[in-house]
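Recall the central idea of this unit: under ordinary conditions, the amino acid sequence of a chain determines the structure it adopts. In this exercise we apply that idea directly, starting from the sequence alone.
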Amino acid sequence: MHVPASVLLQCIVVFLQSPPFWILCKALKEFVNETGNLPLRGSIPDMTADSKRFIELQNCYHEKALEDVQNISEKLHAILASVGKKTNFIEDDEIRLFCKNAAFLRVIRCRSLEEEYKTFPKCLDGLIGEPDSDVVFYVLFRAVDKFYSSFDRYPGEVDEDVEGDCEKLQACVTDLFKEWGIQSGIKEDYVKEM
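Accordingly, the structure predicted from this sequence is:
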């Protein structure tokens, strides 16, 4: 798997301002470089074995997981000390949880919110016209954001304004569709629900 350079850099260089997640990632990276493995979760899947052997094996996994957590904790404390943070900056429970789930870490790339708000995602264009599509709620949330920007409040905050707010929110939806160059609409029921 290819890992972006910006992600690798955050795992290599830790600063005083680095969030706990990236400090934990650096400790995990050092652990993997040293051992060649991720920390054990501490539990084993169900398997066919007599109770005595299953319990013995479970205890072995649990002890190894505790050992891995201790090893990562030591690396983490050294990293924290090197950037001038207290060793209790990241609590033991958070370290254990991170180690338990380290095998499930993934890099997910997406657009920034700024990029998201500049245009309408073209992949959703064909879904707008489908009845009861979940994309309707995406559009409505964007319209609510537009409403808030215009009126400094959310639609329906005041019971007496609900009907007027429905019209204003519908206008926001219409404006969004014009901005995106889409000839479509949203059922009035959805606007009222929002």
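Residues 5-101 form one domain.
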